[in-house]
Amino acid sequence: MNHKDKLLTIGQFAAMHGIHKKTLMWYHEIGLFEPIFIHPENGYRYYSYHQSSVLETILLLRELDVSIHEIQTFMQNRSAHSLKYLLEEKIADLDTQITHLHAVRTLLCTHRQNMDTLLTMDLSEISIVEKEERCLVTVDIDRDTTFEKAVELITSKTEKYRLGHLHKASYGSMIPAASLLNGSFDGYSNLFIEIPFLAYQSGLHITPGGKYLKAFHKGDWDMLPKRYQEILDYTKKHHLRIHGFSYEMGINENVIDRIEDYIVQIEIPILE
């Protein structure tokens, strides 16, 4: 077997690596990856099996969205140190993307769960559910806080914690359990934003893990006090004690056009 028999045609080499031969032709044209031999008479390109590891490195970097310019720079100064640095940088990028995708998946699951709830819910029911601890970004409000001021506060916190778009979040309002027990059913103290996979940071509000009362209210917000009274009556009947805050969150905003159809989910931690 002579030297030429040991070489692979451009088609064979491309097929071995699962790419189109035009990709190899382009890599050659830009000086990124050249054939080991070019026939002087017909210009056919030939490659050696020993070039496979270099090509696979290039293909891996392309799969990681490394630019051609970055790869060219790396190939001109190829070393274990430079590859390690480049891979560490891309691993960090991937970790960020994975975290983002996990957050998006969690948000989609929350929306799907809300839709399941809407399709099966009994608005009159009050139930006990188990909840995990979670982190919330909160802003302080009171009865005198205007809508414009609330928007300003939310915007400020969004920028502070780099929360991005609110469509990636769940948000709502909070009433201290103590206020409810005192008959102050409109004593809202906070607005909250919940971002999936938000890491704990100083200043965040932590909701306790454990059992919660869960109820719903549909329609006119002026009737929310009546619903809260029903919840308090339920706690007395079943010898339960609420504590912390009541967390209110709309669950059907993206599928309604009329405020009369708006459904608020109410969750309050309890002690039995």
Textual characterization of the structure:
By secondary structure, the protein is of the alpha+beta class. Helix content is 41%, strand content 22%. It has helices spanning 10-16, 21-29, 52-63, 68-76, 80-120, 147-160, 177-181, 224-237; strands at residues 8-9, 37-38, 45-47, 127-131, 134-140, 170-176, 190-194, 205-207, 210-218, 241-242, 245-250, 263-271. The strands form two sheets. Strands 4, 5, 6, 7, 8, 9, 10, 11 and 12 form a nine-stranded antiparallel sheet that branches. A three-stranded antiparallel sheet has the order 1-3-2. Strand 2 (37-38) and strand 3 (45-47) form a beta hairpin. Helix 1 crosses helix 2 (21-29). The mean pLDDT is 87.
List keywords for this structure.
272 residues; 9-stranded antiparallel β-sheet; 8 helices; 3-stranded antiparallel β-sheet; alpha+beta; 22% strand
SSE blueprint:
Elements: E1 8-9, H1 10-16, H2 21-29, E2 37-38, E3 45-47, H3 52-63, H4 68-76, H5 80-120, E4 127-131, E5 134-140, H6 147-160, E6 170-176, H7 177-181, E7 190-194, E8 205-207, E9 210-218, H8 224-237, E10 241-242, E11 245-250, E12 263-271
Antiparallel strand pairs: 1-3, 2-3, 4-9, 5-7, 5-8, 6-7, 6-11, 9-12, 10-12, 11-12
Helix pairs in contact: 1-2
